[in-house]
Amino acid sequence: MKFNIPRTVSRTRQYISILAMIVLFAAPLCAQRPATPARPPSQPETRLGDPAFDTLLSADSYKLYGEVRNVGQLLSTGGAGEIIEPIIKLADPPKEFKSIIKFLKANAEALASSRLLFATWPARTGIPDALVAIEFPSADDAAKFAPKLEMFLPGILPPVPVATPEEKTAQTRPAEPGRPQAPEVKPEAPPPAASPQPPDERPAFVLSHSGNLVFISDKNFKLEKLRSPSGKLLAEDQNFRVAHDRFSTEPVFLYFNVALEERNKPKFQDAEIAAQAAAERLRMEEEARAEAEGEMNRNQAAEPEATPLTAVVENTNVLTGRTTVTINDPQASPTPTPTKEQQAQAIATSQIGNLLDPLGFGQPQWPEAIGVALALDNNDYVIRAILIEPPGAKKLPLPFVPQLLAGPAAVAEAPSVLPDSTEVFVSVSIDFSKTFEGMRKESQIKTKLTGQIPVGDRELPADAFVEFEKKAGFKITEELLPALGNEIAFAGSLSSLQGLGLFNAAPPKASASPDASDRKDQDKKESEPFPMLLIAVRDREAARRLMPHVLDGLGIGEANLIAQAQKREDVEIVNYGGFFAYAFIGNFLVISDLVTVNKTIDAYLNRQTLSSNNAFRNSRRWEPRQNLGEIYVSPALMEGYHEEVRKQAATLDPAMRDFILALDPTSSAITYAMSNEGLGTQHEIHLPKNLIITMVAGVSSAMKNPPPETNEMVAINSLLMIANAESSYQTTAGKGKYGTLDNLVAEKLVSREFFEKYGYNLEVTASGDHFEAVATPREYGKTGKRSFFIDQTAVVRGDDHGGGPATISDKPVQ
Prior knowledge:
- Helix content is 36%, strand content 20%.
- By secondary structure, it is α+β, with helices and mostly antiparallel strands.
- The strands form 4 sheets. It has an 18-stranded antiparallel beta sheet, with helices on both faces. A 4-stranded antiparallel beta sheet has the order 23-24-25-26, covered by helices on one side.
- A hairpin with a 2-residue loop joins strand 6 and strand 7.
- Helix 3 packs parallel to helix 21, helix 12 packs across helix 16 and helix 20 packs antiparallel against helix 21.
- The N terminus is likely disordered.
């Protein structure tokens, strides 16, 4: 299958530009201007027969709906304008973006008391794919503003190709008379053009106004078509009302009608068909796995000395845009024979994975609707969401994990155990009994289905829970679960989680003195806190008795032979030879390495816990007293960013460095809470404003001055794009021959501007049934090091040629 990537991207960008402008209408771009006095609240002027903002759409018209309220206040009180500032200063935004900014600044006063809605993803035919409606105080205000949009929009939404005969007809179709009960939306007369419009293109938008509303859409429409004759209004839909009323004061509101989307998906008619489909899927998975193993064995037999593929790991820093590339060469560092500890860890990890797999078995329980709101609360950007579930639905923390059931709402107790230096904390309330019941039921179903599928002579695994109970010697439901509480938590430091790829900047650390020894650095590395798992316990004695048997069930019961127990006051710790350790601290079972467990005990005994940390306590003041889950990321994340800027000040882009260092260095925490008051699961996250601005600044700077690694990846993809365009050209305008870059640009198969942006020079030569494209660094060492080559084989080749061109003799790029 062939894709016209540039044309598709261009078409998509035109539609997205409408939505981008919608969002920017809500952005306080004029925060630096003196605030204009707000108009006194009043109902917009409407006339009999004019469309109304709140009753414009029916419930089955669009799947995605958005609303921006109090636009004037947003434009004058600050907020998103501070995010746009680093984009303007540090990035090189497209001209369309700059035009939108300029237009909104010039018309901030005219939009001071306007409301705006947008809708997209239509569920019915005959309505626009994207619709924008702007409400003004009166019809006169709407009529005055429409010509401004008429002059502005063509600059950011260029004409699009006419795809169908119907579109050509629509261009010349005369307007039909309006109806008093449903006024027709008539497009404004287009401004006189300097030259006739090409016959194969049409404007990307239709501008019209009726009453006090101005409409922007991608095609002509009639107002009555926005409402289903037999359907109820969106404002009358119960799910919409729940979300809309819940977020009635937030300035930006989004609503996604999931039920409307699910309604159009094909569904199985009965459970038997579903079971047959699941069985067939399992059979195919087993066959594919068997075939892969057989192919691997054949390859190993044919090429015993084959060199494994080199592993390349990339980590891009959000702040600086720098990409660190790590190459693991098996020849330079052969894989050592795993130790007994490593083998035991692999066995335990595999067994735990088998036990947790059933969490994802079964059908996901998607909500009927999702409401989302955006707001600025003091120095935090706040995102709130509500998932409106169908009646009788299970209470799930995550819709795509169908067997994980939430427990009762409660105050998290893990902070009373964790050290006050904890930088990342995640807690959730789980109903372990119902969760296990669902997991076991789904596991039995899958095991039964799998057992009915013959796959060669392979022995299929038995139920993982049955195997665990057989090895452990106890029943999970009768003995283990009654000993556990509902809370489960995960905690650690930013530096320890950075190794898992969760954060790109570690918190600041004191630099070692120039004469520091290697052993001192190694000791410091070993002292890094290890992540820990906390599980609430109701019956400590039962849990203590069962823990050794849990290891038996996981297949590492031999570890009990080296277990050493010790007690510190009322805290008991069990150490497994440095492999791992656990302790019963307060009402929790804490599992980690020995060093981390001991530090946690020290903090608990000395009452230096996270619950006494002022930053932690202050950051949670907005949260409900009792919730189903929460997340806390300490201010150390922002402090780490500032520390990194100071360390790299000499190599950072000066504008980026000066902008970051001028920000308020005061940091606050990232906090999240999940709750359910009966209407649906509610999620709320608070993100520090200066952290978001810092991250946007980093991305903006990277866009303007991409690191060499990014340029190289773009160059590779550019050559693949050229190959795809050449293939399209050969089968169309080229009539069997390949084309030059000018030919491809003329046919709108590629965009020359895209290739010129990312630090590489691109040359294309073509002759008959052969073409070659070469990408070389514009400034060797600064914009890139490797050069690349591609021809009609569509294989990218390349290497470091000191800035010289690559050739067909270079090795393929992995």
